[in-house]
Amino acid sequence: xxxxxxxxxxxxxxxxxxxxxxxxxxxxxxxGDAANGKTLFNANCASCHKLDKKAIGxxxxxxxxRRSTEWxxxxxxxxxxLRASGDEEAIAIFEExxxxxxxxxxxxxxxxxxxxxxxxxxxQKKAAPEEAGTxxxxxxEPVEPDNTVPLLILGAILAFLVxxxxxxxxxxxxVQGQPTTSLAEDANIITRTALKNPKIxxxxxxxxxxxxxxxxxxxxxxxxxxxxxxxxxxxxxxxELHAGQNQIDCNYCHYGARKxxxxxxxxxxxxxxxxMQVQEGPKxxxxxxxxxxxxxxxxxxxxxxxxGYEQKPIKWIRIHNLPDLAYFNHSQHVTxxxxxxxxxxxxxxxxxxxxxxxxxxxxxxVNCHRETQVQVKSNDYYTEMHEKLKEKYGEDAQxxxxxxxxxECGKCHY
Length: 414
Ligand code: HEC
Ligand code: HEC
Ligand code: HEC
Ligand code: HEC
Ligand code: HEC
Ligand code: HEC
Description:
mainly alpha
C-alpha cells in the first residue's frame, strides 16, 4: 500500500517539477484552453500521435519539456517550412522517423496550437496517477507487477527467522547443559528423519515429478511453435476479423491465387477500398488503421490524399517461402485441382496472426500427390487434358495426381 502511495505521488511530483523546470528553461508560460486543445488534438493529431507512447509520430505528453514553445508553434503549423529553413532540431527528428511526413496545419492559429500544447501537458498529468493506481497503462495492456523487491524482503525475513530460531534453540540447550549444534547439522538431522518417513518421501516424489513433466511439456510445446513460423506483422491485420467475422472472400485480397503462380499480398490501395470509411477497429481503435493512412498518405479528417506525399509500401513479412529449387503454382492447385486454401494453409479465417500451418517439405507435396485424385469432373481449367485422361483411364477411374506425373522430379524442380 505504502509503495503505491509513494509511486503515485512521486510521479505527480516529477511531472510538477518538470513543468516548473521547463517553464524556467524556456522562460515562457504556456496558457490556453485544454478542452479546446483536446478537441483539436483528437481531430487532427490523434491518428498519428499519442500522449503516453510512440505511435506513427513521437509521444507528445512531454513534448513541451523537450522543445521550446516557439519551435513547437512553427513545427506544428508547417514543419516542412521549418525544415527548409535549416532548423537542425527539425531535420533531426524528421530523420529519426525515417522521413515520415507530418502534414502541415496552416489552419491552426497560434492560440489553437497553445491549446493543443496545454492539453498534452494536462492530459498526461491526468493519465499518470491512474496508471500507478490500477497497474495498467493507458493503452489498456495489463502490466506484470514487479515482485522482485517484496520477494527479496520476504527472503531476508525468513533467513533472519531461521537464524533467530537456531540461536534461541542453542541458547536453550546451553541453559540445559546439552551440546549445541550448528545450522548445517540441524539441516542434516531434519533431512534424515524426513527421508525415513514414507509420507514425506511420497509427497516429495510427486512434487519432483510434477515439476519434471511441466518442464518437459513446455519444452515439447515450444518445439511445435518454432516449426509454425509466425512473425509479427507491421500492421496488426487480423484474418480472424476480416475473413472470419466479416466474411471477406480470400480472393478479394489474394486474387492472384486463382490466376497464376503466386498468390499476391494485397496492396494498401485494396485496404483503402474499405478503410476510407472504416476508420476505427474494435481492438486497436484508430492506431493500427492509421498506419494504412500513413502508407498511402491519406488524411482521414479532410478525406483526401495528401498532395505530394511519397507513398511507402507496407513491409509485410513473408511467412511461406519455398526454396528456389522448387516450383509451386497456386492456380494449378486452387483452380485446376480445386483444393481449398485451408487444406494447405489451415484455418486462416480463425487466425488473428497468420502462421505457417503445413511443413511445406517435399514429403508433404509428394504424399498429397499420391493420395489426392484429380478433379476431372466439372473442371473447365484443364478441360482438354482431363478429357484425355478420361479416354486413357475410363470415365470413372480414380486418377491420382501421381498418375498424371505428379511425382516426376522435373514437375517440381526446374
Ligand atoms: C500523418 C501523421 C501525423 C499527423 C496527423 C500529425 N503528426 Fe506530428 N508527427 C508525425 C511524425 C511522423 C513526426 C516525426 C517527425 C517527422 O517524421 O516528420 C511528428 C512529429 C511531431 C512533433 C515533434 C515531436 C518531437 O518529439 O519533437 C510534434 C510536436 C508534433 N508532431 C505535433 C503534432 C500535432 C500537434 C499534430 C496535430 C495538429 C500532429 N503532430 C499531427 C506525424 C503526424
Ligand atoms: C482483407 C484482405 C485479406 C483477406 C480477405 C484475406 N487475406 Fe490473407 N493476407 C492479407 C494480408 C494483408 C496478408 C499479409 C499479412 C499477414 O500475414 O497477416 C495476408 C497473408 C496471408 C497468408 C500468408 C502469406 C505469407 O506471407 O506467406 C496466407 C496463407 C493468407 N493470407 C491466406 C488467406 C486465406 C486462405 C484467406 C481466406 C480465408 C485470406 N488470406 C483472406 C490480406 C487478406
Ligand atoms: C472489404 C472491406 C475491408 C478491406 C478490404 C480491409 N478491411 Fe480492415 N476492416 C474492415 C472491417 C469491417 C473492420 C472492422 C471494423 C469494426 O468491426 O469496427 C476492419 C478492421 C481493421 C483493423 C482494426 C482492427 C482492430 O481490431 O482494431 C485493421 C488494423 C485493419 N482492418 C487493417 C486492414 C488492412 C491492413 C487491410 C488491407 C490489407 C484491410 N484492413 C482491408 C474491412 C476491411
Ligand atoms: C496445395 C497447397 C496450397 C493451396 C491449396 C493454397 N496454397 Fe497458398 N501457398 C502454398 C505454398 C506451398 C506456398 C509457398 C509458395 C512459394 O514459396 O513459392 C503458398 C504461399 C501463399 C501465399 C504467400 C505468397 C506466395 O504466393 O508465395 C499466400 C498469400 C497464399 N499462399 C494464399 C493462398 C490462398 C488465398 C489460397 C486459396 C485461394 C491458397 N494460398 C491455396 C500452398 C497452397
Ligand atoms: C493438398 C494436396 C496437394 C498438396 C499438399 C500439393 N499438391 Fe500439387 N497437386 C495437387 C493436385 C490435386 C494436383 C492436380 C491438379 C490438376 O491438374 O487437376 C497437383 C498438381 C501439381 C503439379 C502439376 C503436376 C502435373 O503433372 O501437371 C505440380 C508441379 C505440383 N502439384 C507441385 C506441388 C508442390 C511443389 C507441392 C508442395 C510445395 C504441392 N504440389 C503440394 C495436390 C496437392
Ligand atoms: C510434388 C513436388 C516434388 C516432386 C515430384 C519432387 N520434389 Fe524434390 N522437393 C520439393 C520441394 C517442395 C522441396 C523443398 C523442400 C524443403 O524446402 O524442405 C524439394 C527439395 C528437394 C531437394 C533438396 C533437399 C534439400 O535439403 O535442400 C532435392 C535434392 C530434391 N527435392 C530432389 C528431388 C528428386 C530427385 C525428385 C524426383 C525423384 C524430386 N525431388 C521430386 C518438391 C518435389
